[in-house]
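Review form for a predicted model. The reviewer records the input and the model, then writes brief findings.
Reviewer: anonymous (R2)
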Amino acid sequence: MYRPEDIQERLRQKPFEPLRIICSEGLRYDIYHPDLVLVGTRDIMIGFPKPSKPTIYDQLTRVALVHIVALENIPAKSSTSKNGEN
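Model under review:
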């Protein structure tokens, strides 16, 4: 299990590198903007924006920290990027 501080440290890395959050049930979330992830003591909230406003979320999902099994680097997209579930 990842601690909240582990997630925050990865999100605050400068320069920010996009990452994939992999969960125990097989869900994967691609994070392209660190401001769209809110870290809590037991879970994280991930915002999913519309392409027209890539830094303002349109939908939100909650992921329990106990279900996060891996954080992977992913290549940055050259076009408009968004947080999204694969």
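Findings: The two ends are 21 Å apart (CA to CA).
Further findings: The chain is about 10% helix and 40% strand.
Recommendation: see findings above.
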